[in-house]
Amino acid sequence: MVFGRQGSGRVAALLLAALLAAPALAAEKKYGPGVSDTEIRIGNTSPYSGPASAFSMVAKTEEAYFRMINAEGGINGRRIVFVSYDDGYSPAKTVEQTRRLVESDEVLLVFNALGTAANSAVQKYLNGRKVPQLFVSSGAAKWNDPKNYPWTMGFTPSYETEGYIYARHVLRERPAAKIAILFQNDDFGKDYLKGIKRGLGENSASMIVAEEAFDVSEPTIDSHLVKLKATGADVLFDIATPKFAAQAIRKVAELGWKPLHVLSYTSASIGSVIKPAGFENAQGLISAAYFKDPNDPAWQDDAGLRQLNGFLDGYFPGSDRSDTLIVNGYNTAQALVYLLKQCGDDLTRENVMRQAANLKDVELGMLLPGIRLNTSPSDFAPVKQWRLMRFEGTTWHLFGDVMSGQD
């Protein structure tokens, strides 16, 4: 095509305009619901009341952490508005509050909502609405299913993986053990049960002498423990949330029963479980961790713990620092801030999930050495490893190597 002088001048002008516009287009901001030049709205549900209210410490820590981030200038100049509602650990209430977050508050994403049953109740809804259900506060294996639920991502190592490593430890240390299992009668408890049986393998049928399921609506689990003791078991897997875990520790001591007592990490908090149960009753408990315990003298001079304490001094001074649920909230809040910064000015729901699915060796100050966040489009499990720990004196002590859910 041949242009005359006037035509070529127009072309040159158009090319110049396009070149001048290119930087502006490259810097164009893309916002999803809940985002503006000044704020990012994040949704959450947590049991501030009800049988699992101890877990609300996680959301309280996150709220304090986001206040600190806002005081320091926010996320690329945008303040985080953390909208957190009480669901009482009731899935029906979670559904109600999650719809409120999405349809009324118009949050960008739902972050670190607590509970397996609660998150299960809203998973299809959030995926149907293409709302990120990010860093779910539950170790259920189902959160790592990007093919069927591309808008859902967990955070912690799975309960199944945790149950597996406990079983491998028992097989190694007590191959002739008689195992009793107390477990919460929901997806949370059943995932552990699956991992324990997978870890025991062909020994499962002969080693497990009793299984007792309980419901969170029960006021006490004492009768279940009396039944389990009567079996003569010398190993107890205690798969319970904090209220019931504390009851179990006390009742086992009261019965004069002295099994190897293995406790779910979700109830390993010294502040909300061990103290109420009594330090004298908790000696020798086995659990697992993927993050540093601020009560462990081994981390006294650790830079990550110093940063955590600095944050607590300034923004959560009245908190019980023996409560490791604080570390849960701190880690996930740090991870979200990292992720939102990675999004830059493309704060759409699609880009949030794209960035979440491409975490590469992300270090958080309170993760155990050797444990980092890694994801891919086909792997939505940011943390995959554990270390075992034993309760001695007034704190937990790590032992053994970093372990995963594979031999």
Please give the structural blueprint:
Elements: H1 5-26, E1 30-31, E2 39-46, H2 56-71, E3 79-86, H3 91-104, E4 109-111, H4 116-128, E5 133-134, H5 159-173, E6 179-184, H6 187-200, H7 204-207, E7 208-214, H8 222-229, E8 235-239, H9 242-254, E9 260-263, H10 270-277, E10 286-289, H11 303-315, H12 325-343, E11 346-347, H13 349-356, E12 386-392, E13 395-403
Parallel strand pairs: 1-11, 2-3, 2-4, 4-5, 6-7, 6-8, 8-9
Antiparallel strand pairs: 10-12, 12-13
Helix pairs in contact: 2-11, 2-12, 3-4, 5-6, 9-10, 12-13
Short description, anyone?
The protein is an alpha/beta fold.
Walk me through this protein's architecture.
41% of the residues lie in helices and 16% in strands. It is α/β, with parallel strands linked by helices and 407 residues long. It has two domains: 39-157 and 301-376, Response regulator (Rossmann fold, 3-Layer(aba) Sandwich), CATH 3.40.50.2300; 159-289 and 388-403, Response regulator (Rossmann fold), CATH 3.40.50. The protein has a four-stranded parallel beta sheet with strand order 3-2-4-5, with helices on both faces. It has a four-stranded parallel beta sheet with strand order 7-6-8-9, with helices on both faces. Helix 9 (242-254) runs parallel beside helix 10. The model is unreliable at 1-6 and 22-26 (pLDDT under 50).
